[in-house]
From TrEMBL:
GO molecular function terms attached to this record: hydrolase activity
InterPro entries referenced in this protein's UniProt entry, alphabetically: AB_hydrolase_1 (IPR000073), AB_hydrolase_fold (IPR029058), Sec-Metab_Biosynth_Hydrolase (IPR052897)
Origin superkingdom: Bacteria
Ranges where the AB hydrolase-1 domain occurs: 6-227
Pfam families for this protein: Abhydrolase_6
The protein, known as: Alpha/beta hydrolase
The keyword Hydrolase appears for this protein: yes
Amino acid sequence: MTTPTVVLVHGAFADAASWAPVTRRLLDTGHAVVVPAVPNRSLVGDSAYIRSVVEQIDGPVLLAGHSYGGAVITVAGMADNVVGLVYVSGYALDEGESLGELQGRFAVSDLAANLVYTPFPVEGSEPGTDVSVKVDAFPAVFAGGIDVATAEVLAVGQRPLAALAFSETASAAAWKTKPGWGIVSTEDHTINPEVERFGYERAGLKSVTELDAPHLVMLAKPDEVVAVIEDALSALS
C-alpha cells in the first residue's frame, strides 16, 4: 500500500504554523504533508472544507487533528481515501454530539474563564460571534510550556473560532470505521485531559500515548508527536 499523505489539521486559536515543527520533521523524512488553513467558522463548514481538501489528494490520507481539529477530522475523515486518524489533544466526538456537550461531561478547564466574545458581520444574516483567548492569559492557559516570547507572538496572532462551532453536532464519527491513534496532553489547561481520555477510549483507538505536555504539544514535544504519526503510518503502509 502507498504510504499515506499526512494532512495536519490545526485547531481553534491557532493556525497551520502551530504544526511547523512537526511538518518540518515529516518533510525531512520524506513524507508527503499538507497543512491546510481551517476557516474556523463552523464545525459543519470546516469539516466539509477539509474533506474537500482531502478528496483532491491522490492516494490514501492520514488525518491528524489538534484540539478542535480533532472534531473536524472526526467528520471529514469519512472521505473514502482517509485510512486513519490521529487525535492530538483533540476532541473525538460521537455522531450527534457537539463540543459543548462533550466538554460538559467534565470539569471546566482554565480556558473557560479567559475567553473573549467579539461580534463579526455576516452578510444577509445576524452578526456572528468570534471566540478568542484573552491575550494576557494566552501564554498560561493555551501556550503553557512554550517559550514565553513565542507564546506572546501566538497570542496576538491567534485565529478565533466562531461560537457556532461549539454547538453544532458532528454528522458522522469516522473513528467508527477508521483506525485511530491518540495523544493526551496531561498538562493541558485548554481541554480537560479527561475529555481527551474519554473520547479516545470510547472510540476504541488502537493506541493512546500520554505525554507530560501542554495543549500545544506539537510545539512543546514535536518529536514525540511525530513518533505517534510515524507509528500510524507504519501500521497503514
